[in-house]
Specification:
The protein is of the alpha/beta class. It is 31% helix and 25% strand. A hairpin with a 2-residue loop joins strand 11 and strand 12 (255-260). Helix 2 (32-55) runs parallel beside helix 5 and helix 3 (142-152) packs across helix 7 (263-276). The chain is globular, with a radius of gyration of 18 Å.
Length: 283
């Protein structure tokens, strides 16, 4: 059985500021030094999950860089047995690879809480202006969108690591069968109590091994299709733009909705609306 590991950055041990997760090429409030340290920790957590997956019986591991530009992981620090997907123009974005033949499990590394979550360090969903995503009546984050898309290809989520708030949300939505490892305890949007990186990597390795060993009995995440879908923004102008898209309706001042017949349609519609909503707010 092959596995895919989706690696984000905000949930990595030691990370509690946007400065740490912002590539210096963006300019503004960034620090090349802090970003380099954070991306190394991100890579070492991905490597620990891969090592655990291999010990758990995975015959192939594809690691998908899933943060921002999706060019953050340091290939030389990864196990030599793995393959790496990088670059941000991927058809399935954060879960690219789950569509490959033989993939039987998806693992989340460095995941964070959804937008609006109290105590969730750097909690957000997709970008800085989406306030909420609601699928089939359930508020969700990137973890839910990605789990549903993986489920479209009959691939279950079996493992997740990140902050404790995110791990609680993932357990509540995806089920207690998902092995979760909290590498930090959220205190606020910009503060957390962290494990030592070596201890975090040890727990990730052990959790991933446990999860992959049990993956054959895991069930893909899904909802009842067709599903009602909604996304809320921080400003009515974003909803104005999205409401002009065929098939999308206005729910309230800052929320639009649509119906999706499957998770692939849901994900690609969401992704399009997230782009359409990126309008200038200064006229």
């Amino acid at each position: 059985m092959k596995v895919v590991i989706s690696v984000d950055m905000e949930g990595v041990c030691g990370v509690a500021s946007w400065v740490q997760v912002s590539p210096p090429e963006f300019g503004g409030l960034v620090s090349g030094t802090e970003y380099q340290v954070a991306r190394e920790r991100m890579t070492r957590e991905a490597a620990a999950a891969a090592e655990g997956a291999i010990m758990g019986g995975a015959t192939g591991v594809l690691i998908n860089d899933s943060h921002d530009t999706m060019r953050n992981l340091i290939p030389e620090l990864l196990p030599p047995q793995v393959r790496l997907t990088s670059g941000n123009d991927k058809p399935l974005s954060m879960v690219q690879g789950v569509q490959e033949e033989g993939v039987g499990a998806l693992l989340f590394v460095g995941y964070h809480a959804r937008a609006g979550s109290p105590r969730g360090p750097l909690a957000h969903t997709w970008n800085g202006f989406i306030r909420n995503v609601r699928i089939g009546g359930i508020d969700t984050g990137e973890y839910g969108l990605n789990a549903l898309l993986a489920g479209h290809y009959d691939v279950p989520v079996v493992f997740a690591c990140g902050d404790d708030v995110a791990m609680g949300e993932i357990s509540a939505e995806l089920g207690a069968a998902v092995v979760t490892v909290a590498v930090k305890e959220g205190l606020s949007s910009f503060a957390a109590i962290h494990l030592h990186p070596a201890e975090a990597q040890k727990r990730i390795r052990e959790g991933a091994e446990q999860a992959v060993r049990a993956a054959k009995t895991a069930q893909p995440y899904t909802t009842r299709w067709p599903a009602p879908c909604q996304v809320s923004f921080d400003h009515q102008a974003r909803a104005d733009a999205c409401a002009r898209v065929p098939g999308v309706t206005r729910v309230d001042a800052v929320t639009v909705g649509w119906s999706s017949e499957n998770a692939y349609h849901l994900f690609q519609t969401f992704r399009m609306l997230a782009t359409v909503a990126g309008v200038r707010l200064n006229g």
